[in-house]
Task: inverse folding
């Protein structure tokens, strides 16, 4: 007891977070996964799957941004795929127009996308639920239309940077340290990790608490002195920033961008996988990206049409919403733990469960 | 001291508050009345959720209605809700600390203030426990603790004992009675439980159909024939 008192005195700022065992284990798991992704994955995978995993890294950041809106603040936005397209457009334009270092371009793409995405979020100050979803979907559609006319920059001149008559299209450049596909995959994992860190820092501090209050009850949030307008726009700003950065990574990953790669319905699929993965946890964003990018790549490799995924995702969303509203990121570990307990009991049927075990079935 | 002058609130054709004028003195004041009398509407006007058609509210010499709703918490207005609104996702500590961090108070004293408020309401749980794991009575106490933190000037309690068993209501009454001396805040209690109101409030005001029909020392007000008639109805129908 004395030890905990002393520990609390030593950490006056976060006295109540039970750092210690759970947090350490979690940090260890994250470190191991990150090292595995950075060092082992590029060795183990073929180029086809390395490209796929780069896309997973990009889309887990997009899913993370949507998770902030849906899971933390309760704002259903169906415009995030369009926001990603804006990020990719801005990054591509900057990469063709300037010789700025890549991280700077990503930062600028994030900031410019943040401004645009916050504008898309303005209706959220008045609308929620279905109506906000509808309005953001319409805005995403409008952005798709604009992109179809302006096209993505391909090394041309002028503000739009598009040259329709060129035969030789230059590729969008990559950072010099990450020119090859495995190196670029590592680069995208590092960027994704930084974005997760940024969002984590928000969720664990004052904005995260304000968002939790807004999600449950706006009157309660207002009565607590929370400027709900500011914090809702802040959520859109954060989600758009990380999505814009992801768009910048995407631009370098694919080398060539086309407006047909960003259909409006992608935003709907994105919301579906985020709900399936789990909008309330950051792990859910990774699950969502795997569902969205790895699954189609696997099916494609096995010769199955990825169109089946629309049906699969539909069933998946139904399953998650009815049995596990917190998504697969919450359900799978819980079910695995339950399965583990069950197996342990089967293997040693004579013994009673340990006193701390919550199983408590007949011995 | 809160001076309410000629406060009128209309929702379409319905007049929820009809020229309400009353003065609440420091201490704990009751505000009672039958369902639909306008008690919660009055609280919502003070919180800034409802804009009155006319009238003024001066609290400790300041025009409360001229402030933007979310800034009223920083000024020192606290409230609880009829349906309890402790934030489920956050811990007990974060629920209370949230008020403190948006009240523009220094972070240095936060931990002490927050834990002080939690122990003041007699909440005997781990401050790190998530609110969703608590029972109804404990959640009510979390909400009351939120109203205690960060130098409140006015505390509005909207039916804090609704749905609670008798022993928890007794504990809550004990807490409410100690609010003025503990925080110095003027407390207004809305409740239908007359024993709670008489146990906590020296003064009580009575609303009926948006009009103030009585105000004064609680015991006298509860004996007032207008008040009894408002609650029980009257035999002579016009």
Result:
């Amino acid at each position: 007891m004395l030890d905990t008192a002393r520990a609390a005195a030593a950490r006056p700022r976060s006295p109540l977070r039970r750092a210690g065992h759970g947090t350490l284990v979690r940090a260890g798991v994250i470190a191991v996964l990150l090292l595995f992704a950075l060092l082992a994955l590029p060795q183990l995978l073929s180029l086809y799957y390395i490209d796929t995993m780069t896309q997973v890294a990009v889309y887990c950041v997009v899913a993370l941004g949507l998770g902030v809106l849906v899971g933390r603040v309760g704002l259903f936005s169906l415009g995030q795929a369009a926001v990603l397209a804006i990020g990719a457009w801005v990054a591509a334009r900057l990469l063709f127009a300037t010789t700025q270092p890549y991280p700077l371009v990503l930062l600028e793409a994030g900031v410019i996308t943040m401004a645009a995405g916050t504008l898309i979020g303005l209706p959220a100050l008045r609308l929620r639920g279905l109506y906000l979803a509808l309005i953001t979907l319409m805005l995403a559609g409008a952005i798709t239309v604009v992109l179809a006319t302006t096209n993505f920059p391909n090394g041309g001149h002028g503000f739009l940077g598009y040259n329709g008559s060129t035969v030789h299209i230059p590729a969008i450049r990559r950072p010099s340290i990450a020119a090859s596909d495995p190196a670029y995959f590592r680069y995208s994992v590092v960027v994704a990790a930084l974005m997760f860190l940024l969002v984590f820092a928000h969720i664990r501090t004052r904005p995260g608490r304000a968002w939790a209050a807004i999600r449950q009850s706006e009157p309660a949030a207002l009565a607590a002195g929370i400027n709900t307008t500011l914090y809702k726009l802040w959520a859109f700003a954060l989600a758009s920033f990380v999505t814009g950065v992801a768009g910048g990574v995407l631009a370098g990953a694919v080398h060539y961008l086309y407006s047909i790669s960003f259909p409006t319905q992608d935003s709907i699929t994105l919301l579906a996988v985020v709900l399936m993965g789990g909008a309330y946890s950051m792990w859910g964003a990774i699950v969502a990206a795997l569902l969205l990018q790895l699954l189609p790549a696997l099916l494609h490799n096995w010769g199955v049409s990825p169109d089946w995924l629309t049906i699969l995702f539909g069933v998946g969303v139904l399953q998650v919403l009815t049995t596990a509203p917190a998504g697969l990121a919450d359900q799978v570990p819980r079910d695995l733990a339950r399965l583990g307990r069950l197996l342990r009991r089967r293997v040693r049927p004579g013994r009673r469960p340990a006193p701390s075990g919550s199983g408590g079935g007949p011995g | 001291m809160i001076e309410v002058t000629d406060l009128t609130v209309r929702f379409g054709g319905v007049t929820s508050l009809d020229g309400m004028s009353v003065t609440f003195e420091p201490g704990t004041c009751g505000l009672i009345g039958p369902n639909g009398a306008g008690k919660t509407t009055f609280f919502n006007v003070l919180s800034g959720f409802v804009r009155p058609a006319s009238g003024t509210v001066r609290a400790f010499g300041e025009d409360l209605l001229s402030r933007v709703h979310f800034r009223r918490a920083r000024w020192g207005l606290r409230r609880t809700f009829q349906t309890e609104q402790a934030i489920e996702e956050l811990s007990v500590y974060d629920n209370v600390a949230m008020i403190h961090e948006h009240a523009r108070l220094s972070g240095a004293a936060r931990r002490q203030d927050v834990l002080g408020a939690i122990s003041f309401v007699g909440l005997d749980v781990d401050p790190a426990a998530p609110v969703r794991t608590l029972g109804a009575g404990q959640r009510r106490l979390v909400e009351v603790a939120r109203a205690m933190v960060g130098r409140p000037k006015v505390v509005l309690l909207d039916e804090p004992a609704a749905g609670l068993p008798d022993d928890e209501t007794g504990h809550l009454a004990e807490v409410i009675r100690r609010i003025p001396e503990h925080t110095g805040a003027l407390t207004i209690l809305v409740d239908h439980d007359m024993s709670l109101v008489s146990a906590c409030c020296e003064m009580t005001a009575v609303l009926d159909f948006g009009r103030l029909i009585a105000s004064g020392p609680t015991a006298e007000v509860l004996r007032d024939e207008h008040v009894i008639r408002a609650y029980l109805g009257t035999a002579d129908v016009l």
Observations:
- Residues 1-18, 353-363 of chain A have pLDDT under 50 and may be disordered.
- The radius of gyration of chain A is 22 Å.
